[in-house]
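Suppose you are handed a protein chain with no further information: no name, no annotation, nothing but its sequence. What can you learn? This example shows the usual starting point.
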Amino acid sequence: MGEGVETVEILLVEDSPDDAELTRRALQKHHFINKVTWVQDGEAALDYLYGKAKFPDQPDRPPRLILLDFKLPKLDGIQVLRRIKADENLKQIPVVMLTSSNEERDLVEAYRLGVNSYIVKPVEFEEFVKTVSGIGFYWILTNRVPEQ
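A reasonable first move is to predict its three-dimensional structure. Written in structure tokens, the prediction is:
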């Protein structure tokens, strides 16, 4: 890759195809995302992170950012977050939780486990674009994950 250009990997864990598409469009609107991998449940997220399942064009390093929905099939967002933050090889990856409510109990538990931030999914697309893009710019452009 050229000087100053890098592939940015984001793991998007979202069970709703509509919300996943909305999130991807929000991230891609500002042209700073080269690669977003979408999985639909918590089990698939862990399979991806631990290399237990092959995904098209899977990089040989962990993602730079994880966008993780709270409510997921198989393993919910809190269970996935708990596993990520307990693992020495994964815990440095920034995790932003996506939620459709301000359920304080869930948010308190997420912060206790080490989540970096959260986004309440609004219905209005432009507001969501602004919120997701701001989070994406912050975590990807200012937070550098050390090379393994």
